[in-house]
Amino acid sequence: MEHLTLSRPAPDLAVVQLRGAGRVNLMSYAMLEELWRVANDLQSDRAVRVVIVTGSEQAFSAGMNLRQKEVSEFESYSIEERLQIHSIGARACKAWEDLHAVTIGAIEGYCIGGGLAFASALDYRVASSMATLSAPELRHGMNMSWQSVPRLVALVGPAKARRLIMLAEQVAAADALAWGLVDVVCDPGAALASAEAEAQRFLAMPAAPLRMTKQAINQAAGALSHAASYMDLEQYVLCQSTQAHRDSIDAFTGRS
Fold first, then answer.
1. Domain 4-190+206-253 class in CATH
2. What's the order of all strands across the beta sheet hosting 110-112?
3. In whole angstroms, what is the distance from residue 199 CA to residue 50 CA?
4. With contact defined as beta carbons under 8 Å apart, do 125 and 146 qualify?
5. 99-146: pLDDT as tens digits
6. What is the distance between the alpha carbons of residues 198 and 182, in angstroms, rounded to a whole number?
7. Are 124 and 71 in contact (CB under 8 A)?
8. pLDDT, tens digit, for every residue of 45-74?
């Protein structure tokens, strides 16, 4: 793998590190493909009971790299090609959400956009006190996709989801804890160690009841998630046709 590192500190514990572009650990379509494949591999490994996902020391991930050709030169692709390319985000998140193992995000620094969308598909989130979480997609002329809106609403409720997504507010770690967006706040630089400690708490629970309870909670929280978000991929492709999106991409890539 080029964009992820997988390690096994113990037979029942796996750690996946996001290795994205630049200082803020930007995601790519290649990384999402690897995340989807790794989720399927982990699902078939009966020994794995907890999986931790971490990023770099500076950022869990500040979202998708807007300089990727698939984003910056989207007009060169047909509608059908765009739908196929961008579908991997939702597929990767769903594969991680459906893992039998408990999943924990260890968040340092920025957790923004696609990084937040992916983190919301995990079961549990540990954040450094210096972490910042936000969903700035609307500012860039995009909708929040990857079927993440229902997950975020389930975590923080509709009122705070409006502030998070519709107003693109940045949320500091302490507020994210109060909102329910993260579950534990730790000292700077200690997110992975804190996530490992939380992993041990989950591993101390009986395996079968833990697995069944995770599934029950996910079903209760997300029973209508697909119905509410199944068209967000098509909405994203539609948003690409707006001038607001084109202006934002041009400004990011320096073409304005």
1. alpha beta
2. 59-61, 110-112, 132-134, 171-172
3. 6
4. no
5. 999 999 999 999 999 999 999 999 999 999 999 999 999 999 999 999
6. 13
7. no
8. 999 999 999 999 999 999 999 999 998 899
d(CA 106, CA 123): 11
Would strands 50-54 and 13-18 be described as parallel, antiparallel, or unpaired? parallel
Strands (E), the chain: 4-10, 13-18, 50-54, 59-61, 102-107, 110-112, 124-128, 132-134, 171-172, 184-186
Return the number of other C-beta atoms located less than 10 Å from residue 40's C-beta: 12
Cβ pair 15, 54 in contact under 8 A: yes
Query: What is the average pLDDT score of the chain?
Result: 96
Among 16, 19, 34, 112, CA closest to 66: 112
- Measure the CA–CA gap between 92 and 114, rounded to whole angstroms: 11
pTM over 0.70, yes/no: yes
Tokens representing 97 are 């959400």
Neighbours of 216 (CB within 10 A): 10
Tens of pLDDT along 133-143?
999 999 999 99
Q: Rounded to the nearest 5 degrees, what angle is found at the Cα of 121, between the Cα atoms of 116 and 126?
A: 65
pLDDT tens track for 6-33: 999 999 999 999 999 999 999 999 999 9
Domain ranges of the chain: 4-190+206-253
